[in-house]
UniProtKB/TrEMBL annotation:
Residues 46-146 form the Glycoside hydrolase family 19 catalytic domain. Gene3D superfamilies: 1.10.530.10. Pfam families: Glyco_hydro_19 (PF00182). One of its GO terms (biological process) is chitin catabolic process. GO terms for molecular function: chitinase activity. This is Lysozyme.
Length: 198
């Protein structure tokens, strides 16, 4: 089972942020079979980057840049701002909010802020739980456990197949390679806490 030390180090977060999120991230990892050292480490490194070390649960930008983005399902006026990125992996757009609502059994379309409230210090326990679970849902729907299984954590992440696969995971989450060095650094920071773990 995921420990506080593993969560803190792999996300590069402060202890109090990691403590707040720990029960919900453990629940998320159990629910979505993020249950091997490679799966957990890759998931947490990515989540750590996306959330600024388990701090942000809502994107800083207004979301107006997403207005009218049909690829995100933003078909109604105001959808861009309403459905801006929220959760530990920024769930963005009406279509994704609808899909995660169905999967988790909460109406995030009617209540977008249930996915996360600004940052960890302002979130209710329900928002913390939803922020974590929505990240697990996103990871699972993109079949990222399958990619994480291809990473050998006993070998360098900076070269060969490991780097290739890590970049594929990053692209699935980000749409590109934005923040790749930071994501890799979080992976490396967490690595000693996952080696030799059964």
């Amino acid at each position: 089972m995921l420990t506080l030390g593993q969560l803190k180090e792999a996300t590069c977060s402060k202890s109090d942020y990691a403590s707040k999120f720990l029960p919900y991230v453990v629940e998320t990892c159990n629910k979505f079979s993020i249950n091997t050292p490679a799966r957990m480490l890759n998931f947490l490194a990515q989540v750590g980057h996306e959330s600024g070390g388990l701090f942000y649960t809502e994107e800083l930008a207004s979301g107006s840049a997403y207005e009218g983005r049909k690829d995100l399902g933003n078909t109604q006026k105001g959808d861009g701002v309403k459905f801006k990125g929220r959760g530990l992996i920024q769930i963005t757009g009406r279509a994704n909010y609808l899909a995660v609502s169905k999967a988790l059994g909460t109406d995030f379309v009617a209540n977008p802020t249930f996915l996360g409230g600004k940052n960890v210090t302002k979130c209710s326990t329900a928002q913390l739980e939803n922020a974590a679970k929505s990240a697990g849902w996103f990871w699972n729907t993109r079949k990222l456990n399958d990619l994480a299984d291809q990473i050998d954590i006993t070998k360098s992440i900076d070269t060969g197949n490991n780097l290739l696969v890590f970049k594929k995971i990053t692209k699935a989450i980000n749409g590109g390679y934005n923040g790749l060095p930071d994501r890799l650094n979080r992976y490396k920071a967490g690595l000693p806490y996952f080696l030799n773990v059964k």
